[in-house]
């Protein structure tokens, strides 16, 4: 839907700093540009350099960041607007090429004086791109002055991204880059950063103030990022050398365009948004906090202050962890001294008080991008239209509940009453009317704690308080609504609306936390009496041996159901379930896609044939530009067909009427040869440009075209979206509905334990959202399936009269409904692999009323070297009559971990092979009298016609059909190959292990002349850069620095390797497959600086099921020799 005036693809405004920004106490304004000047003129070149082309002279192509636009000085891309603002516009031409603009301050000497502070700030209005913002990349940032004239010395010159925004997401990212790339102190190429949503109003379509503060007035020195004076990220000199921010810098605003683009004109009939376009990031961003540790005390020892004093080190206490199931503490060593010990972790581990030690790691909550979100309102009543408020006694038609039989249990009166669910997440907006509107005794959210504090930033110590309110992330509020939302304007309720919720806020506004805080949260939820603990986050490891995973397993062993999201790494292949979902007795909740796509639309109306007093409602998704005022205009359609493939892909005919006073209906082309921008250009040519863009549902578009074909006249009435109501509608998902979500993480674990246990709807889920962020939203991921399964545990537990986690998990697993294999394109006539779906979609009613209880929820036959050919399980008949059971087998797709000829794990969809296991049973038919049990032994013959080196994972279901009408299943999994024979590291650049710079292997004995650690580097420094790939999981990964010349350093023998120490961050324990990009500055992990000389790096990894004491169970890969020289 397109109307008149003009088309703007992207605009970034920088209003007058001097005029718009008030004076700041204690600061003196030293530079500004108020952008006052003639409209359609370029900015003042006395202040600004205008970049042109696709790179700096001699610099990396595409500006070194993969941008696809060409920067110009054309006023179509860069101009003053005549009202004290600068507009930067990215434009896509009819051939699909993009142009935009980037400017740099002429001055390059902005710096914070020693003992002082400096602030750089601007007000920016980011582009409104609606749901089609993929690829947009507006930014406001700085670079070190040394970058000018030498464009190969990034990131050593330093970079502060004051604002980065991508894909039209309502978030601001603040990022710091420094040191070496890849790796280095700033974890390049990702950098160190945080993010948050813009306060009050969205980043898009509204001016917000973005500020960078460099503070050298106190110790430690710090760099801070603000949006509208709200701090959302900081880095201190305790974390990094302060010389990163003592360099002179210059500033750059720009509007870049990334590699993947969607046009600014949306369709009236786009493909239904699916959950396989996940709204959650599957990337695991966990990093070790240097010098920070979690320790578990030996029994009875809990004197943390005395322990710190005895270490003889300067220690910053983080947390007391004195719980029933875990007694310990977390702390951070500061100002480490090399004369104390070269191995601080070893020093601590050797103390008799210490039972176990782990590094403190950051954990990021899954990044949520709502597919649809409501508007910020101060009250709900009357704002949502299109549905009636459901009364509790009415039938439950909410599709996730129908898919899982929750509706049937609710019809019987089960609501979870008396069950306590502890939610470990980002907190809950308990002020939401659908979540009860209050916190404390007598409220729905009646207990809990804020374990981080409002402004928590790792590695700082948390500042907990008693208020678990979530008004800045939203994740936990969405989770809570899935469990317990009350009747509301959108016509749905939570699955178990009468449970009692405990909210444990373990992530702050920057979406980061640490594993010690999560350990704290889980134990607090357990000791506060939670019957069920639900957590929708994790770390991608495939192992369960970190302190968080150990805590979850211990709690599960104490009779509490622990339900955890396995993650959204499904597109990255197998063996990637997240911890602690991988834990023993922990339930991992996979995801299937909703059978509908819920839509939260801007409400409009239309009339037919000028009918007075009669109007029909409709809803639309605002595009870019938004309609900015109330409009009533006639509708005109480019085509008389609702399935047209090429509307307006060619210039419209001369017979086309004047479109300047019409709303134009068209369908986005079904061909890649026609861009939406081409369609918009052809429509605009018959009118006076474009003033608004919106998307309606396929059904609405077809209704209008049918009316127009009948000769009717249609007038569309649009209210300014800022004042419009929200309309709820739903579109049938006939592509992936009720199929396993493509993003749901795959198991099994590295020990070949089946994960996930089962699935529930997690793709395209409507639930609550913080009031200040829009009230309701639609999200996707295992974060959404996890709370639904937690609620089902509550309902089934209430119905069966038990909270025993083993019985509940077994009966829910055995009654689940397995789904066919969907490879993203085709649905196959075979079950999806068990490592993807577990036993299938949970069926709450069948689980609640089952009379048959099995003793196991899954079976693992392990791999060929640890093969367990037989398993025995019991069947218990709890009914009043004798039941005859028939045993059988249903196969699932056998999937390869590796593609043919590849040493790297295959991405989704994993290749499959037409060969399966054969199962036999000690008895194929068994009769069990009422109240009795019987044992059955199952024997497996793994598939034979497979390539074992590709590590085939076979799976399926043991089926148990009862003559009382019940059907039960036990999922099984096995590996027809050797986990231990699968390499962890391989040598050579072809396998990703080499010494290099910008990913080019470096010749042996190359000399690197670098600044000595702790000194200020010059502008251009090339550090040794090491890259390697961990091809498979490992219990331990080492990166040893080996001296090849005389250094005088002591060495430690590791088999035949004489190591002088580790690269920073090593050794790592319980590691998933991953790529390493590391820099070496001359400083080892223990803080020791190596002398000048010749070195090499030797990587080693213990193979799965390997023995640490046997060299043959380790894989090794080493770099070529290199020489270190220091700048004197």
Automatic annotation (TrEMBL):
InterPro entries xref list: Beta-glucanase-like, C5a/SBT2-like_Fn3, ConA-like_dom_sf, Ig-like_fold, Peptidase_S8/S53_dom, Peptidase_S8/S53_dom_sf, Peptidase_S8_Asp-AS, Peptidase_S8_His-AS
Entry's Gene Ontology cellular component terms: membrane
Top-rank taxon: Eukaryota
Leader peptide range in chain numbering: 1-19
Record's keyword terms, sorted: Hydrolase, Protease, Serine protease, Signal
Annotated GO biological process: carbohydrate metabolic process; proteolysis
A Pfam family this chain is assigned to: Peptidase_S8
Keyword Signal carried by entry: yes
Domain GH16: 22-306
Catalytic residues (positions): 425, 475, 783
GO molecular function, one term: serine-type endopeptidase activity
Family: Belongs to the peptidase S8 family.
Protein's recorded name: Subtilisin-like serine protease pr1c
Organism: Colletotrichum fructicola (strain Nara gc5) (Anthracnose fungus)
